[in-house]
Amino acid sequence: MNASNVEGLRNAVIDTSERGLLAASRWAAEMLAGLSPSLKTPSMRSTPAKRNNAFPIRRPKSPPPPPPEAHFVTPSSPPTDLITLTQLKEGNKPLDSLPSFERAGLAEVASTRTTVLDAPTSDEEKDAYSLARRFFDSRDFGRVVYTLRDYKSAQSRFLSFYSEYLIAEKQALAAFYKRNIAKKHNPGPLNNSLIKLLDAVGQTDDPFLLFLKGLLLYHVSRRAEALECLIRSVNLYPWNWSAWIQLSTCLEDNEEYQGVSKHFPPHVATRIFQIRFMNELHSPGDSELNNVDALLRLFPGSSFLMTQKALDLDFDTAERVYDEIRRRDPFRIDDIDVFSNILYVMEKRTKLSKLAHEFLALDKDRPEVCCLIGNHYSLRADHEKAIKYFRRAVQLDRFCLSAWTLMGHEYIEMKNSQAAIEAYRRAVEVNKKDFRGWYGLGQAYELLNMPNYALYYYQRGTALRPYDLRMWQAMGMCYQELNKPREAISCLKRALLSPDARESTLNLKIAALHDSLQERAEAAAYHRRCVELGITEKRPVAEYVQSCMYVARYNFFHGGGDMKLAKEHLEKVSSSNVEMESGAAAEYLRRLRIMHPELF
C-alpha cells in the first residue's frame, strides 16, 4: 500500500460520488478513514485532498502514450484476452491458456498506466452536469436524462445511462409489488429498455461505462460478456467497489473464480475482493484469514474488514469482533443481520432482543434491521411475526438474500413446504453461490416426501460446500428412502470426513445399512468403532450398549471368531445397569464359559 494507492482511494471517494455510485463512494470513504495513520503522510494530512495525475478530472487534448509494454483492450482491438460467451457455454477454460497479466499488460493498466477519466470540459456542460447531479440526489432520474441528453463526455453519458437504468429498476420494482409474493419471479430480463440502453452504451474504454455495461449485460442474461466488461473495468479503475460487487454476482462458483482471478489487477482491492468472495461462498480458509489480518494492519479502523474477519471465526470469537465493531461505530447498520444470525445460533435471546429494539428505533426501513427483528421473533418461536418482517425486508430490497433464506426457514418450521420452496427459489435466484438456498430446497422437498427432488438440490449444495456434514447426511437419508443403500453408505462415509462429524451417530447409521445388506463383518467393524469412541469419550455404557451386543453376537454366532473380544464386550454390558441387555449378556457369558473355558 503506497502513497499512490492511498491517493487513488481518496480520489475514488470523489469519482464514484460524482457518478452517483453512493455505495462505492461510502465504502471508499470508510476504507480511507480506517487506513493506518502511518500510511497517511504528513503532507497528505496537512493539505486538502488534491487530484493527482492518476485520475484527472479533465481529459488532456493529447494524452501521453502508454508504456511500450502495456496495452489497452479497445473497440478496435477485440478483447481476445478475455472470455467469450461461446467458450463459457461450451465449458472450455480459455483463460488457462492465456498469457499472464504481466505479459498481457492488463496489470500495467492498473498499476503503471494513467487511467484518464473523460469529464465535462466546457463550462456549459459542467453547469448542466452540476444540475443533473442535484436532480440525481433528489432521485429525479428522468430530469437527469433530459438535462444531459446533448452531452457526450463519458462522465455525462454514465450519469445519464445510469439514471435510465435506475428508472427501469423502479419500474421493475413496481411490477414486483403487484405480484403475489408466492408466485414465481422471472429472473430473466425485466424489460426491453435495458437492451436498448445497452445498445446506447456501445463500445467504450471508460472504466465506469464498462462497469455499467457489465451490469446491463448481466441483467439481460449475457453473463460471460458481463464478466469481460467488469474485469476490464476493475483493471482500469480498481477502487470502484461497485464493479467488484457486480463481478462477484456474475461469478457462479469457486472454480470459475480461480479461472478468472489471474486476470485481476495486482492491487490491494483485489485482495479485499478475494476475502469477500470466499466468505460469500462460505468457504474461507487459512489463507483468507491471514489475508484479512494483513489487510487489517493496513486498515486497522476498517469495520468492513473486521466484519469479513468475523465471518471466518467461530461464533464466540465472531461475537466479540462484532461487539468491538459496535463499540467503534454504534450506529452502523451494515451487516447487523449477520450479527443477529450469530446471536440466534448461540441462542442469546436477551442480547438479540436488546439489539432489535435499539435498531428498530434507529431505522426500521432498512432490510438488515428487518432481518434482525425477524430473527428476534423467530428465536421466540413467533414464526408469523418473523415472516412479516422478512417479507418487509424483501419489499425494501427484493435482492435481500438473507431475508429470502430466513423466510424459507420460518416456513419450514411451520411445515409450509410450498411457501418455503418459493422463498428458497428466490434466494437461489438472488445468489446461486449460497448453499443455504439449495439446502433449504432439499429440506422442503423432503417434507413433501419427494426424495428425488430433494437429492438434486442437496447435490447442488454439496458442490458448493463439499465438506458440509448436513448436506452429505441428508443425501444419505434420501438414498435410503429411495432404497439405494450402497449410495447411502457412500454419502455417510463422505460425511465422516467433515471436521464437525458426529462420528458415533454416522457409524451407527452406516452399520445399520451394512447389516441390511447382510454384510455383517462391515457392520461389526462400524459398531466396534462406536464402542471405541464410547470408551475414549468415557460415555455411559447405555449409549453404546447395542454396538457392544452386535460385536459380541457377530463373533459368537456369525463367524467373527474373536471370542476374547466377545467376552470383553459381554462383560461390559452385564456389569452395566442396562436392564434389557444385561440379562442377555449374562446368558451369552454362561454359554461362552461352557464352550471356551480357557478364556475364564
Automatic annotation (TrEMBL):
Location of region: Disordered: 36-79
Transmembrane as UniProt keyword: no
Record carries keyword Cell cycle: yes
Domain Cdc23 intervals: 8-310
Family matches, as PROSITE patterns: TPR
Per-repeat ranges for TPR: 367-400, 401-434, 435-468
Record SMART domains: TPR
Protein name as catalogued: Cdc23 domain-containing protein
One GO cellular component term: anaphase-promoting complex
Keywords on record: Cell cycle, Cell division, Mitosis, Repeat, TPR repeat, Ubl conjugation pathway
InterPro entries: APC8 (IPR007192), TPR-like_helical_dom_sf (IPR011990), TPR_rpt (IPR019734)
Bias-annotated ranges (Polar residues): 38-50
Any GO BP annotation: cell division
